[in-house]
Structure formats: C-alpha cells, structure tokens
C-alpha cells in the first residue's frame, strides 16, 4: 500500500475523510440553527481548526490557555476556554490573549471570577464569561440554579468580565452505549438545563450563549436551548465513539474514521501472538483497547509502553509477516493525538506532508 | 511552599532524592558484581543518564532508535536498544548511530537479524546483538532454548553483527504484589534463564552479556547469571513500584519518591469533591490511579483528559482552597513523563531550572 513509505509508529490523518466529517457536522448545525464551535482539545491543530471555521464554525473551544495561544497564533479569532482558569500566571496570560482575539471562558466560583476580572482590568480588556452548570456530570460547575444566577449577577456587576451565558456540557452522557439509553441520558441533561434556563428567566437575566453538547449527544440536544455545540471527536472519530451505537444498533457511523496509527509487526513469537511497535506511549488506554482495522480476527492488547500485542480470536484469521504495516484505530483519539508530535497527512489515500500537533503537551 | 512559583500542571524532579537513588542502586550493583545499565525509557533525559553513568553505570538501555539518538547526542557512549528493530529506515538509522557510539540491540528472528546485518554492512559498522529469550513474559523473544542457540549461531556466521549474549528481561514479574510472591516469580524466571544458559553451554557458545532485571526483581536476580541490570524506575520511583511491597509488608521503600506532578485545585464543587487541573494528558492511567501525597484522606480519580478529581475517603480530611497547589505521585512514571515537555528541577527543595524531556515522543 502507499503507506509503506511512512516510518512507524505514525499518527495518520486522512484529509479527505476529515473534510467530509467537517462538512457533515457543519451542515447538521446549520439545519438545526445552532452555531458550531468544535473542541480543539481533540486535534490541537490550527490547520484543522481553520478548515472547521472555513466550513462555518464560529470559532473553537479549548481546555487550556496554552491551547488557546496556539490557536490564536494559528489564525483562530474566536475562542471559548471551556475550563475554569485558576492561578495568577494563567489568568494574566488569558487576559493578555484577549488583546489579540475574542476570548471567553467559564467560571463556577466567585473567587475565580474575581481573580479573572482583576487580571482583565489590569490588561485593559473585557472577557466574556459563561457560568458553568453541572447538569449531572459531577466534575466542575454549579449544580444549583439559584447559585448559578447569583454568580451571573456578580459577573454582571464586575468590571473586566461580561456575563455571556451558560456552559452546559455533560461529558458522561457522551459514551453511553445504546441509542435509547444515550438519548435518555441526554434528555435528563436537557431537563436539568431547562431548570437553569427557568431560573435565569425568572431573574430576568438573558443568556445569549448556551454552549455544550458533544459527538455522542448533539443529535439529542438540538431543541434544548443550546446556541452552540462543542463537539470535537466527530472530526476524526475513534473506537469509543464508534462503539456508542446508532439507532439501528450498528456502530455509530455518521462520521468516517479519519485517523489511525500506523504500526509495524516487529515480532511473531507464535501463530497466536503478533507484537506491534506501538504501546502506551503511542496509543492511549484511558478509553479502552484500540482495534487493528486491517486484521480482523485479532484482538489488540498492550504489551507495555512500547508494545502492542494482537492475540488470535479467530483460528482462520490471516497471519501477517514481520515488517508488515497495519492500521490501528485508537480507542480514544484526543489522548492518543496528544502523544504524537506530528500528523502524517493523506490526500487521495497517499502521504503528502506532516502537520505538527501544534498544541501537544500544552497542559497549562 | 517554595513550589508556589511553578505554574501547573508541572512535572517536578527532586534532584537530591534522585541523586540518592542513583547512588544507592549503583552501590547495590557494585556489591553484587553486576554491571548497571539503567533504562533511559523511564527518564528520556541525557542529563539524568549522565548522572547515572557518573555514578558507575556502564551506559543506558533504550527502547527506540529515536531515544538512542537523543542519548548519543547528549553524550552517552554505550547503548543497548532492548527492542527488536524492524523496518528499513530504522535499521539504517541504528547502523548509522553505531558510527558514533557503542550500540547493541536484540533479535528474536532470522529475518530481523539479516536485515540488521545488511544495514550494518552497508554502513560499514558492526553491531553487537543479544538474542532475546522469553522467560515467560509472552511478549517478544524466543521461548525455546534450542531456537535461541540456532539464532545465535546464525548471528555468529553473519557479517555486520556480533553475537554478544542474551537479553533476559521479564516485565510481568516486576509488579507482582508481595515480596514472597514476587520472589517466586523472579525465581521461576531465573530457572528458565538457567535452561537457556545450559543450552548455550552445551553448544559451546559463550554469552558474555546477559542483560535484564528491573526495579521490582533485581534483588532476586543477583546470582542468576545476569551480567548487567536494566532497572529504570528506581531513579524516580512511582506509585506502582512503591505498592509492590517489601519484605516487611510495607511499601517498597528502597528508593525515594523523586518525581511528582504539581497540580492546582481549580474547583471545589462540594466538600466531598476537589477538581484538579491534571487529567489523562498530564498523568498516565495505564498503571492505575495516582496519589495526592499532600492530602491524605482523599482518593484520586480522573475526570477526563484535563481534570483530576479527589473524592473524600475520610470525613476528617483537610479541605484545601481553590488555587492551592498539591503534589501528585504518578501511578506509572515512564508514561507520565512522556506526556511532559520539561522537568522542573528542584535542589534543596527549591525550583532551579527546567530540563527538557529530551526523548519525549521519540516513538520511532
């Protein structure tokens, strides 16, 4: 195959499949009347972000100030940092960045709000803030609508920040297996969001932005009041999101698998065991086990930091040769991408150039 | 504390504790009459490797050609690549590297041996090879002593390579919990190695190097015939290796915890839940859950790629403040280090400078 020229392990991006995924989600959002603000934590690449924006996205989401810096440097003009930013260094960096681009972030505590506002005043900027609502995820955010209203009032009264609405993301519903079960999870999330919206309406506070939803839940959240969707993984897909299932009980196939790791068979100690040159430092394990797409009948397992082990699940499955290159679908794309310095970019199925994973390792 | 000036999350290295660990293992190896060749896959840092060599190590181990390149560039003159190197690009790079340093690697198949030998002939170098024995780990390597002898004979007869002995590493015994159980695992490994040594003796083939052992097993393998130990994690330690236990049933404490991640409390949604700014992209999960060393009575769990969540396990445990910085011990050091660009280096407990994780991401 034409991938033979790539040394391994390599993170490979199929530009054509990615382009179709970008177009498809953009069209869905347009028809639903919801803005699309894809999450750049997935790809960490301004080159990908620019293609999403060219297709209609209003900007991107980031989780870290360092990711936002990379996106602004790469030409992205509108960013929501979907995470509470805490610490003097980081709020100062975020405020400075607001001199170069439209920056919003989220808050869930008066102390965080005040520190951010002070940094913005010092930098001579105003940042839009969304109050983060906890819709049942149990991570950050405010679970009590009255407390969310109170924090919004404080934001409205505070110089340096501008209250722009709510963040309402529920990560745990994204990977619920089964269409009906996932729909039920999303509807519970939507019902909780309705409580927050009612509390804000009763207080007479407008929420011009309500931002949330992900690749596993967006189809169930079009009429819940969201003004923008934060979906990230749709751009590449991964095994976890394929496994959530669609309405027919098949794998979730709205989007194509546009990303894989190319690995080499480095040892075949027996007819039942194949060792690949890709372990925990090449493929993340937080989302479960990757899958060898070129070799059905073999199950992927890890053999440590530098080794993947395929074990025979089907006696008739093909036995590859030492040196053969195989495509592996990551279980979790985001954390796998973050292990790599570069994407090897395919066009027409052929290698073209390398793109940096520009925000890789930007954890601050 | 003096760590307050460090922005988070940060990978922090206590140089004093590391120095004591290096000295202690060097002394153990010297007394045991076994050479020490620490594994650089752990630290990926020539600065650490040079300190190990200054204390008596004969060189380092690497898993990848890219790691070996970084080590040679950083001044390391003697490297064993403890992994089968497969693929035309990589064997050519390895052969080229042998023009600049003493390079050895391992083989477990005639095809791999022949390809490596051809690359060495083309580069005008000779590389020492160790035949990798599978002592029960079930990853790479040859499980049958007669087949190992046959491959050694082929190496002896092949230009470009020099048969130097055996690699005999058993990764699965490293983390067996309980001293007696781990000793039993190591002794089974030693017994299997004895079968290989007997087969080589019977064939009249000398094995000047027998390389293996790790931080969890080295104490049980001093008289098994090893000429060099490959221990890596002892230099920093991690939660996994502390948890294997010593002979008294306590945590394994031969070496000090010299590495941690500094994280910031970014949200406290309730008195039972603390959210930290460190998720899967900051701390690896392949070795289980990290541990908050400054906050007993709280259990660490992940809240996704960018969040760690501490849950109260003890009603009387201290509740920190938003913005407070906490030290987290990684469950698995090697894969956590590989997520970071830099070590923040402490001397006398105080921040001094940053060291690059120079071989981070060198997966080829």
What does this 3D model show about the protein?
Two copies of one chain form a homodimer. In chain A, the strands form two sheets. In chain A, strands 1, 10, 11, 12, 13, 14, 15, 16 and 17 form a nine-stranded mixed beta sheet that branches. An eight-stranded parallel beta sheet of chain A has the order 2-9-8-7-6-5-4-3. Chain A has 364 residues and is α/β, with parallel strands linked by helices. The model of chain A has no long low-confidence stretch (mean pLDDT 97). Chain A has two domains: 2-9 and 253-356, Lyase, Ornithine Decarboxylase, Chain A, domain 1 (Beta Barrel); 15-242, TIM Barrel. The first copy, chain A, has helices at residues 15-32, 46-54, 65-73, 88-97, 110-123, 145-156, 179-202, 239-242, 333-337; strands at residues 10-14, 35-36, 60-62, 78-84, 102-107, 127-132, 161-167, 209-212, 228-229, 259-270, 273-276, 291-292, 298-302, 308-312, 325-329, 342-347, 350-356. Helices cover 29% and strands 24% of the residues of chain A. In chain A, helix 3 (65-73) packs parallel to helix 4 and helix 6 (145-156) crosses helix 7 (179-202). The longest helix of chain A has 24 residues, at 179-202. At the A-B interface, helix 5 and strand 10 of A face helix 5 and strand 10 of B.
């Amino acid at each position: 195959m034409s991938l033979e020229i790539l040394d391994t392990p390599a993170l490979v991006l199929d530009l054509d499949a990615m382009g179709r995924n970008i177009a498809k989600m953009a069209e869905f959002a347009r028809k639903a009347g919801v803005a699309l603000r894809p999450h750049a934590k997935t790809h960490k690449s301004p080159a990908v972000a620019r293609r999403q924006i060219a297709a209609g996205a209003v900007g991107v989401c980031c989780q870290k100030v360092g990711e936002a810096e990379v996106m602004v440097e790469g030409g992205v003009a509108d960013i929501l940092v979907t995470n509470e930013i805490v610490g003097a260094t980081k709020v100062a960096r975020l405020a400075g960045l607001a001199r170069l681009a439209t920056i919003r972030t989220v808050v869930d505590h008066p102390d965080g709000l005040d520190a951010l506002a002070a940094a913005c005043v010092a930098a001579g900027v105003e940042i839009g803030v969304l109050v983060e609502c906890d819709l049942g995820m149990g991570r950050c955010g405010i679970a009590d609508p009255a407390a969310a209203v109170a924090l919004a009032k404080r934001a409205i009264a505070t110089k340096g920040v501008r209250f722009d609405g709510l963040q309402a993301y529920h990560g745990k519903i994204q990977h619920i297996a089964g269409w009906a079960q996932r729909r039920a999870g999303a509807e519970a999330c939507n019902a909780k969001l309705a409580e927050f919206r009612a509390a804000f309406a009763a207080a007479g506070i407008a929420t011009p932005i309500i931002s949330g939803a992900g690749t596993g839940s967006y189809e169930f959240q079009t009429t819940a009041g969201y003004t923008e969707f934060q979906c990230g993984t749709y751009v590449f897909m991964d095994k976890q999101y394929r496994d959530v299932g669609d309405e027919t009980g098949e794998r979730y196939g709205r989007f194509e698998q546009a990303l894989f790791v190319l690995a080499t068979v480095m040892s075949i100690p027996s007819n039942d065991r194949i060792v690949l040159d890709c372990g925990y430092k090449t493929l993340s394990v937080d989302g479960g086990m990757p899958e060898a797409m070129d070799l059905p009948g073999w199950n992927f397992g890890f053999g440590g930091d530098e080794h993947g082990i395929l074990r025979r699940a089907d006696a008739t499955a093909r036995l590859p040769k030492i040196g053969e290159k195989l495509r592996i679908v990551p279980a979790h794309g985001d954390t796998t991408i973050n292990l790599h310095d570069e994407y090897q970019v395919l066009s027409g199925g052929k290698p073209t150039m390398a793109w940096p994973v520009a925000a890789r390792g930007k954890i601050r």
